[in-house]
Amino acid sequence: MHCDQCQESVKGTGCFVRGVCGKDELTAKLQDVLIYAAEGIALCSEGFEGKIDRKYGQFISECLFVTVTNTNFDDVAIVEQINKALAMRDEVRALAGTTPEHDAASWSGSTREEFLAKALTCGIDSLSEDADLRSLKSLILYGIKGLAAYTDHAAVLGYTDDDIYTFYVKGLSALTKELPADELLGLVLETGATAVKAMALLDKANTETYGNPEITTVKTGVGTRPGILISGHDLRDMEDLLKQTEGTGVDVYTHCEMLPAHYYPAFKKYDHFVGNYGNSWWAQDREFESFNGPILMTTNCIVPVRESYRNRMFTTGMAGWPGLKHIPARPEGGSKDFSEIIELAKTCQAPTEIENGEIVGGFAHTQVIALADKVVDAVKSGAIKRFVVMAGCDGRHASRQYYTDVAEALPQDTVILTAGCAKYRYNKLALGDIGGIPRVLDAGQCNDSYSLAVIAMKLQEVFGLENINDLPISYDIAWYEQKAVTVLLALLYLGVKGIRLGPTLPEFLTPNIAAAIVEKFDLKPIGTVEADVEAMMLGN
Ligand code: FS2
Ligand code: SF4
Fold first, then answer.
1. 3-state secondary structure of 361
2. Would you tell me which CATH number, out of the four given (2.60.40.420, 3.40.50.740, 3.90.1170.20, 3.40.50.2030), belongs to the domain 364-537?
3. Cα-Cα-Cα-Cα dihedral of 96, 159, 244, 424, to 10°?
4. Which CATH class is domain 10-209?
5. Which CATH class is domain 216-345?
6. What is the pLDDT of residues 200-217, one digit of tens each?
7. Enclosing H/E stretch for 267
8. Whose CA is nearest to atom 3 of ligand 2?
9. Residues annotated in the binding site for hybrid [4Fe-2O-2S] cluster, as ranges?
10. pLDDT of 12
11. What does the entry list as the binding residues for hybrid [4Fe-2O-2S] cluster (predicted)?
12. Three-state SS for 380?
């Protein structure tokens, strides 16, 4: 195996023996083959000038999502997905009536052993013999993986954008070709453009289905009834679970990236939707233990499952862990069946309390724009000197303490704009407010970083500025997995310059490619807390 797609890959080289995330060699290889099979569908779709049927586009989203860090570790499910992908590729090839010359368009296999043999020639090392070209292709692949996850969430709610699927054909086919660096660099930017489309699509899907997020206070304590803990990013699963648990005597709690579900009007009507339990993904093993009741993982991030809660943890959607019960897809027009989880919950103890406080959030673009007058006045009066976007991911490493320290060190006249699980580094600190505007404005999940871009563009319009970089906004982004790569490429595409990225720059960027991106976008690695806070306050 060779995997280098996340920030926690083994320093300098990537994971070769076993992932720091818990992914073993066989799973990593099968995921490589799944990507290769998706590339085959894309290649065969070139025969239709890239106009891929939605059915295939949606299926490619799912294949890519399965391979996003911490999503699916279940070899049986991945083998099944590869077989489906090969069948779809053959279907598309037959419809096109031609067979592209590349092996991805024609190889065959059906067993786990055949796929593992195939993996020897189709991992990331096969993208190119040239390290810089391989680096650019990796950036495209990881960006597409992240946007595929967002596109999949939107599709679950019935929202699609054919341009995104068309880009899958172009972007994934490109990975099988020898292309010059400038062409690949162009595709990196196109990945950013498509990332914006995917995040805008998901924003529309979420808000048209569940309403616009509103300022909300979420409790972090527990009640006395048994509960179900739901984690991941899938709001449709949230909806099904809330409906099915109503009146059952079972409460529902969010974990990690599901916290923002509390901000949506459609979910506020449920009295048994009690609060948020715990912190970001990497602390889940301890927190799942003390939760006492069933846990439903709707997407990433799953960490290696402990015996103590294995028999009460469930996956659904693209998520998977070997041996855990997987709740099947909903039938056309219907709902998922969570009855087994609910029945199990009734037999469990109430969660053990691990804290008892509040988190305030719900500052997606409509809510912030509704407060625009107040915000603009505060900027004009000097009450707010600067906004610092600290969106992105959280992770295990102690170096992420940097983000807590920055939040604490920022002057009282700054406001932090956040989204994603990065927020858990500072969303429970008592940072106060500025004239009633909280100093941490949480827009939602990592995909809601789109909201932060919309807010920036709105402020640019209100202040009549030519350039988005003239706003009093600094960017201090934390990344971990491929959705954060997507968010970063989206921000770069929107013209945002001077972003700080940490805790480290991606290892899959070679020194040459990193230098090119740093120069073009003024991207910079994080430094010390003191130096970065000082520089940001000076607009650097
Ligand atoms: Fe956090 Fe994990 Fe949201 Fe990422 S829960 S790092 O996959 O998607 O952000
Ligand atoms: Fe390593 Fe990250 Fe890949 Fe897991 S996802 S194998 S930790 S690089």
1. strand
2. 3.40.50.2030
3. 110
4. mainly alpha
5. alpha beta
6. 999 999 999 999 999 999
7. helix 265-268
8. 3
9. 233, 257, 301, 393, 421, 446, 481, 483
10. 65
11. 233, 257, 301, 393, 421, 446, 481, 483
12. helix
